[in-house]
Amino acid sequence: MKEIAQYVVNGLSLGALDALLALGVGLIFGVMRLVNFAQGAYIMLAGYVLFFTISAPWAVVIPLTLAAGVVLALVTERIAFRPLRGADGSTLMVASFAVAFLIQSLMVTIEGSGPKSIPIWPVMSDSVTLFGVRIAVLDLISIGTSACLLTGLWLFLTRTRTGLAMRAAAEDFEMLRFLGGRADRVIAVAFALSGLLAAIAGILLFSQTAVVEPGAGTNAVLIAFVATVIGGLGSVLGAALGGFSLGVLTTALQAALPPGLSVYRDAFVFGIVIALLVFRPQGLLGNRADAQRVV
Amino acid sequence: MEGAQMTGTGFDLREATTRLLGRIPLVAALTAGVAIVGLLVQAYGSDELKTTTITGLIDLIMVVGLYTFIGNSGVISFGHAGFMAIGAYASALLTIPLVTKSVLLPDLPSFLANASFAPLPAALTAAAVAALLAVVIGIPIVRLAGIQASIATFSFLAIVQVVLSNWTALTRGQMTMTGIPLSIDVVGPTIWAVVAIGIAYAYKQSRSGFRLRATREDEFSARSLGISVGRERFIALLVSAFLVGLSGYLYARLVGSFSPQNFYLEITFITLAMLIIGGRNSLAGAIVGPVAVTVGLELLRRAEDGSFFVSIPANSSDIVFGALTLAVLILRPDGLMGRRFS
Fold first, then answer.
1. How many C-beta atoms lie closer than 10 Å to residue B220's C-beta?
2. Is the Cβ pair B159, A271 closer than 8 Å?
3. Interface probe, candidates A222, A269, A274, chain B, greatest B C-beta count within 10 A
4. pLDDT-based confidence at residue B4 (cuts at 50, 70, 90)
5. CA B260 to CA B88: how far, in whole Å?
6. CB pairs under 8 A between A and B
């Protein structure tokens, strides 16, 4: 029983982190049809900011890290993605690889390619006992943070004018422009939000690993990308649900697979992803009408 | 009337030459160029230059293979590095000398433990194994469209990674696979590159190739003409996996040792960038892209060493490469060759 509760908490925590990662990717895809691999670089930068500033009080470290994520996201939008607006999806995708590659190489030049260990706040590795189950503080923080952010984002998208414009952009970007929506602003806000989400996810991620290197964030963004698609592209709630399901599925397989097969866990996860795509191509929350399917 | 008669009867040497040259397809000219460079390097190049050239030729074959699927179908694949891995591992299992193999891989099934193939059958078998895997993975993938298909191909790559990293009896798992007979002969890869371009060209000009490009341009019109999108994509995927598997075989012969990590994200991104830089909708682009990137990177690397006219700080070649890739994409979103030669 206790063991099951443990797995539930682990699943929720990993799901919460994956949901945050997927939200950032989903937002940008919604407004620009860009699969932004540079998101991984925003996460990585957050890790390096933590590495440089961790000895300062947390009230300084956290705002600085978040600001770095937002600024980097806005800079990449202005320099790389704005000139490419309207380009073919695959061109945009490769451009985002190039941006990620460029930022990674800059980091290698500045700090070297070796991993740097971050002496993260000791409270993050503490654990508390709730109803007889030991729960890591970090897991609680992850779950709480994603719950708050998800609610906040939902309120922003449904209750504010900019949020409305952003949903309109996801629906039909040209129409938004015809109606006088400010395209540059909507896209800039989406990038700022994705940078913010990446930095928050970065703080949680690096609190877990306590190590940062120039390639950090790449795996996270790939997971986010998969999560966004299985959740249903163009649906922000779908992205969150996709990320959450992926995290829960991973943990569940870890628990359920016999020891000999547990090293193949990720192969099972991705096998299920393929099956899901075949049987539900529009994703978990996607619109049936948006489904693209060949046969 | 008089003027028309004049041009009708007169012979204009310049016009005739232009027309004759115009009849030679660009792809043929580029292929000839690649072959000539390969042979020149074999005859006069240093070992270092030979290695670089073979690496470039392997990338070329991989990208031509990618083009066969991506270019004709319009579906981006992130999974082809998986086929390259299969080609490389198959070539290792078929060509490592038997004694070495019994030490490195003691738990092999006997038909593999005793397999010792000559280069040509090994190359063809390795490519065929990759194509066989494409039959399995193709069944779900060709049923999906657009971005869903891309995610499915990435999932395939992730599965290949996990299996290669853990099936220790066959692959040595995370440990380096080594002991493959090395070769820095440029002629073999050059011939393979020409053959690969020939296969890609033959597919492109085939009935299936035309049908598949029709579905790329307008899926619904193509379907209304009775074209089965799934069937044509399946055929393209098999041809493409065969070519990419071949590049894996050559890679194994060049480097001699590798691990699953060598066939993951880096090679996926770089070869995709090569294809998109060249122009993903044209076979000419699939030749120009890898050549341009290989030459560019080599020049940057030499500039880093200081053995080229200008010298740049160490490690900056990656930064310059990233920036140049971005610049090409912004200035020519359809790639260097554009859509003109599609």
1. 8
2. yes
3. A274
4. very low
5. 10
6. 139
CB contact at 8 A, A188 and A77? yes
What mean pLDDT comes out for the span B224-228? 92
Which of the four pLDDT bands, split at 50, 70 and 90, describes residue B105?
A: confident
The DSSP 8-state label assigned to residue A54 in this structure reads: T
Asked if pLDDT for residue B337 goes beyond 60, the answer is yes
Q: What angle do CA B164, B165, B168 make, to 5 degrees?
A: 85
* Chain B neighbors of A91, CB-CB under 8 A: 276, 329, 333-334
Nearest beta carbon to residue B330 from set A83, A101, A105: A83
- The pLDDT of residue A294: 40
Cβ-Cβ contacts under 8 Å for A62 (sequence gap 6 or more): A203
**pLDDT tens digits, residue range A255-272?**
888 888 888 888 998 999
Inter-chain residue contact B326 with A98, CB threshold 8 Å: yes
CA distance B292 to B312: 20
Chain A contact for B140, CB < 8 A?
A: yes
For residue A56, what pLDDT is reported? 86
The interaxial angle of helices B265-278 and A89-111, nearest 10 deg, is 130
- Token pair, residue B188, equals 């073999």
Structure tokens at B106: 């003691």
> What pLDDT sits at residue A184?
85
Q: Is B315 on the interface with A (CB under 8 A)?
A: yes
**Environment class of residue A162 by beta-carbon count within 10 Å: exposed (0-12), middle (13-18) or buried (19+)?**
middle
Residue of chain B with shortest Cα separation from A267: B159
Looking at chain B, the whole-number percentage of residues with pLDDT higher than 90 is 52
Instruction: Give the residue-averaged pLDDT of B138-149.
Output: 87
At a CB cut-off of 8 Å and minimum separation 6, what does B215 contact?
A: B73, B74, B222, B223, B227, B229, B232, B233
Q: CB distance A98–B146 less than 8 Å?
A: no
Calculate how close chain A gets to B128, using CA atoms only, in Å: 23
How far is A62 from chain B, CA to nearest CA, in Å? 29
**Residue B13 pLDDT more than 60?**
yes
Of A95, A233, A267, the CB nearest to B159: A267
Report the percentage of chain B scoring pLDDT > 70: 92
pLDDT < 50 stretches in chain A: 288-295
pTM score of the predicted model: 0.86
Contact B166/A at CB under 8 A: yes
Q: How far apart are CA A137 and CA A125, in angstroms?
A: 7
